[in-house]
Structures are given as structure tokens and as C-alpha cells.
Amino acid sequence: MNKLAYHSxxxxxxxxxxxxxxxxxxxxxxxxxxxxxxxxxxxxxxSIKKESGCNMAGISTTIYVIDKNDIEAFPNVATxxxxxxxxxxxxxxxxxxNKYWHTxxxxxxxxxxxxxTDGPTDGPFFRxxxxxxYPRTNAEGIGLANVLKDTDVIVIVKEFSGGGQxxxxxxxxxxxxxxPSENSGKGFADEKGITFEFNAANCKLPMIYSGQIITxxxxxxxxxxxxxxxxxxxxxxxxxxxxxxxxxAIVLTTLNNMVPGDVVRIEYDAASTGSLAFNGAYGATAxxxxxxxxxxxxxxxDNSLIITDGNFA
Length: 313
Description:
By secondary structure, this protein is mostly beta strands. The protein has helices at residues 2-32, 139-148; strands at 62-67, 71-73, 94-95, 102-105, 112-118, 125-134, 153-158, 166-169, 177-183, 193-202, 207-209, 213-214, 219-220, 224-225, 232-234, 240-242, 245-251, 254-256, 263-267, 273-279, 285-288, 294-299, 305-311.
């Protein structure tokens, strides 16, 4: 009888401690902190079908690198509605005054972007890596290697396929680090140069970036402004457009050189006038007529044009 009473007390004590533990955890997550310890957006799965067209591998011969401390603000990420939203930045990098992206030449077919899963069962993440090969062992290359090994950086590379989409390695919280290595080669036909290996762990694969890249000589991927009352845009020129000085309400009707999988972004800023509308598939209509409004159009495999994201009326 005493044993039964003893065990009953232990069971009651366990239940009380368990209940108090839950109450403390709930309080910590909802009262002391504005967001829970683990904030995870629930994003539904999506189907992916086979796509036709070029799927050429490799990255461009130009790598863009910047000291993480030269960045004023990182671009925003879209509110996740579909898995694709988790993969794209929707605004620009803001750089500090008189700062810009530096360019690093990489021999064709010697550079690559790799993302591999690592971590335990309940804590998987990606180890992302960009490799570039500079085919010289001159003072400039050696000096850059000396500096990069001690510098936190952000890296942008351009893929050959996928419409030449740009990918970003490194984040504000976990910037990329560089492990340079030099090889003089042995035989006359060997590759001689410096390999720059950039690494950054992340919960995501390198993000897709469609914003501007400011170098010491030019501005790349800066938004193109549409001509007055233009009803079409050309994706060869740019995949990011700003509404022009329209004289009336205009409807966008034609997207030249757009292939399945392409995404084009249309924006409205303080210099835009008039309005611009687009009628997508499934009866969806986007109308932008105020600064800060925008929308994105994706071309599906059946060639239909779909409004996939945006802030519009």
C-alpha cells in the first residue's frame, strides 16, 4: 500500500512538472519574445514538370565579390506562398557610399556553384560553395588571395542557363569565407593559377537575385524604364522594368523573348506616370499606379503568362 502511494506521488509530481514546463515554454515563446524561438513558415509542396530548352551547365567567367561590411542592407525575400518564393530576393543590395562589387575573372568551364546537404536528421542545412579559377599567379591575384582569406564576403555568380539567373552566396548572418590555393603546375600544358573557393553554410541554397549590381565601371541589371505608353518589353534587354511616363492607362500586352520558366518584374516608382495593367492567366489582373507597387509575371510550360507575385491593386 505504501509502495502504491509512493508511486502515485511520483506520477502526480511528474505530471505537475511536465505541465509547468509546457507553461514556461509557452510563456517564453509568446510573452518574453515577439516571435517564437523557431519561426518557420509553412509552405506547401509544388509539382515540377520536365522543361524543354537549354540546360547548359556552368557559371559565367565573371564573379562578383564584395566585403560584407560594404553592404548597407541586404535585399528582401518574398512572403513565402509557394516554394519558389523562398528562393528569390525581391529587391536590391544597398551599398554604403562609394562602395561597389569587385569582379574576379574565372576561366571558362573552371568555375562552379555547388550546394550539398549536411547536418543531423533534425537539423539539416546546406554547405554552399562557389569555385573560381584565375589563370595567373601575378601580384594582383596573389594579393587578392592574401586579402580574401581574412575577409567575410558576399559573392554573386551568373548561371549560363535559366535565363542567366544570378545566384548569391552568403548572407548577413553567415557571410562567405574564401580558401584560396595556388598551383604553378608541373607540365607546360597544366593549368597554372589561383583557385578561389568561397564557402557559406545556409538553411537555403544560394538565392536567386534580379536586382542591380554596381561595379567600379558600370551598373548591371539596373531596372530599364519603359518607353512612354509602351505596351511591350523585351527580356533580352532586361527582366526588370519600371513603368514609363505614360499619358494614360496602359495595358501590357507583349513580352518579347520570354521562354517557359522566365520571370519578369514590372515596377512603379515616383517618376512613373499613368498606370500599367496586365491580364494574366486564370483571370488574374495586376494594376500598378503608385510608387512601390510591382508585380512579377512567369511564363509556364504551356506558354501561359501567370502573375506569380507582387504588390498591386
